[in-house]
Amino acid sequence: MQTRRLGPHLEVAAIGLGCMGMSHxxxxxxxxxxxxxxxxxxxxxxxxxxxxxxxxxxxxxILLGKALKGLRERVVVATKFGFAIAPEGASxxxxxxxxxxTPANARKVADESLRRLGVDVIDLFYLHRVDPNxxxxxxxxxxxxxxxxxxxxxxxxxxxxxxxLRRAHAVHPIAAVQSEYSLWSRGVEADALPTMRELNVGFxxxxxxxxxxxxxxxxxxxxxxxxxxxxxxxxxxxDAMEANARLVARIDAIARMHGVTKAQLALAWVLxxxxxxxxxxxxxxxxxxxxxxxxxxxxxxAADVAALEAAVPPDEVVxxxxxxxxxxxxxxxxx
Length: 335
Description:
Blueprint: E1 3-6, E2 10-13, E3 17-18, H1 31-43, E4 48-50, H2 59-67, E5 76-81, E6 83-85, E7 96-99, H3 103-117, E8 122-127, H4 136-148, E9 152-158, H5 162-171, E10 176-180, H6 192-199, E11 202-206, H7 238-258, H8 262-272, H9 286-294, H10 302-311
Parallel strand pairs: 3-4, 4-5, 5-8, 8-9, 9-10, 10-11
Antiparallel strand pairs: 1-2, 6-7
Helix pairs in contact: 1-2, 1-9, 3-4, 4-5, 5-6, 7-8
């Protein structure tokens, strides 16, 4: 697989692997199957593996550490901090206690993530969400100290707008920004993505397949598990899925003309949007993983891109990314 750069110095394969769904949000699966999928990804040339302390919490980092044992020199490991997580059993079912971007938490989580992952350095350490009670300069300053201490190689941010990225980058170079980006989630194009390019910051889109919807693995007929995170999202409510299914049908028609799958076409669109973009589609299945990786070899013309974007206009997507009252991405806030 061809490689791309995140920022000036971090080189990774063009498609990474988001590991969250293997143990968090979408139901998870048996550990052995997840380890097999991760190791198969390495065989296929994937180098960037994305996790976070909050996935589980903690279980996903432990899983990734087990899966990558003996493969450390072939991979780039990315993880994240930025949440306050209650001890197990301390707060009932919901252990999430809000955001915590304090320097103390950055240091604590880095040390704990190193231990859970079984590595001596984190390749890419993200601030998962900016804490409104902590200036981003303070959070990034602590992350910069971790770089100086040799515990972290590069630092990143997740779901930030352009002005926040500028403030952070002035403290320490930001290698990458992670945000949702796909044919049906294009909010970053207005402000955040141009700022990334101005500052030579790489872009790592998560959910490039619309949390499975654009790939057709979730349909209006899918009975999502009770603990599936998507049950809470506006786009995955029954009426919204019925409406959005017509967009997927348009993607499918174009994919058939090219002799590829919907997932491959959606990923190829993300890839063609810039050499500084490295999507991290998540999957638990080896066959889906192989399908996704093959998208790196697809070539789209300018006419193909225009046809896809006309087929999925942002103003025809029904439902917000997150529920009202939940965390809202900076670019999508109305205040």
